[in-house]
Amino acid sequence: MRRTISQQTSIYHLPTVEELEEADADRVVPPTELKSRIDDILEVLADFKSRREEGRSRSEYVAQLSSDMSELFGYLPELVEYFLSMFGPSETLEFLEASDKPRPLVVRVNTLKARRKDLASSLMKRGVSLDPLAPWSKVGLKIYESPVPIGATPEYLAGHYMLQSAASMCPVMALAPKPNERVLDMSSAPGGRTTKGNCGKFTSIRCT
User: Is residue 94 predicted with pLDDT exceeding 80?
Assistant: First the structure.
């Protein structure tokens, strides 16, 4: 316990650029080391007055934190800097860790050919474990496990559903196109959002 208290109250030495270049010249920095340094810097920033190294500014700690996060999670440095300015240090780490987790497989029912209830029943008979996506969606299904390829079932090949992320369903819901309206989709690849519009006239443009 004394050791833990000592570690949490001691002055943390922030490596200089020269020290990092010398230490990392002939090796790949392991993820565990990057994560450890990120955690150390976050602790210092949480109690900066007591734990900062004499003569080192907060911006130096944040710059090293940004560099380590960028390296660990594979983001562009400019993007991590933007996240830090928007969320703050601890929240940025939580955001990057959450974004690194795999998202569940989601399918959207083609309501021109099937009802969600009927499609769910058909897929469950094939051994698929699923649930309705969320209260806000009447057409989405969240897939947990499947003994068969979801992108190759007879229902999929017949056009009863398509694979689509939950986030991609939101723009069409927000737009809420009405019958006889004209809609221009300037970024339609691969076309999932466009196919959700079952009314009106759609012009889709795919930029490559």
Answer: yes
Determine the Cα–Cα distance for residues 102 and 100; give it in Å rounded to an integer: 7
Q: What is the pLDDT of residues 140-199, one digit of tens each?
A: 999 999 999 999 999 999 999 999 988 888 888 888 878 877 877 776 665 555 555 555
Name the token pair of 87.
Answer: 């969320």
- The structure's pTM equals 0.62
Pairing verdict, β 182-185 and 201-204? parallel
